[in-house]
């Protein structure tokens, strides 16, 4: 079996107060959990020129020269530091590198990314750059013009991603999320499926099967999968109630569709904020292991 590689931001130190709920621990822990099963590489920092293909010049200029003010940082939920910007550059670079890997070898993996709340002109919800939007914009600049499907199964709607592609006929956005969850104001994806709080395995998997029927009818030539594990029961911010077994069944549904369609897959991490940190790490590692089985 071929030994795949994955990109990681574990080498990026994010400066946060000890009490902050952002799970910075998981990026190193997931990389360590998978170390013997794939080649973990440090995600490269993305070039600012690559970001200009997706994000507005005004927004990027502000980040480079001023940073976020207190009100903007509050909306992101993270204090503005140089370490935050550095880590965001490497997370976006990891997704772009994983995208090139997927087009060459069928599967590309970033042990970070999935920052789907970032808009073209602003940061929101722990997200500075929209890594998937940036990757797609760079593919197009390189001459790739295929149809793209974004399967976003994080517990929160991919509002920024929906805005990036709302008028793009070559990108289909699917978001399956907790309806009463953040963001309060939802954007319009190509297909939004909002679930009730505490939705469990059986109901979730039924809803996903129907959603994937619609999404793969788009006949994608490349799939991005935001595989957030904040859908697990006990997550601080997820509001859903999947078991680890249900999470595995979710991932297997997606991977089976990708295999049937015979298209490249880019896997990004998404959210995971469980009250049990070990469950967050186990859930993420399980997803990547299942992807490796597909490869």
UniProtKB/TrEMBL annotation:
It comes from the Bacteria. Keywords: Hydrolase. GO terms for biological process: epigenetic regulation of gene expression. The keyword Oxidoreductase does not apply. Gene3D superfamilies: Histone deacetylase domain. Belongs to the histone deacetylase family. Residues 20-276 form the Histone deacetylase domain. One of its GO terms (molecular function) is histone deacetylase activity. It comes from Meiothermus granaticius NBRC 107808. The keyword Chaperone does not apply. This is Acetoin utilization protein AcuC. Pfam families: Hist_deacetyl (PF00850).
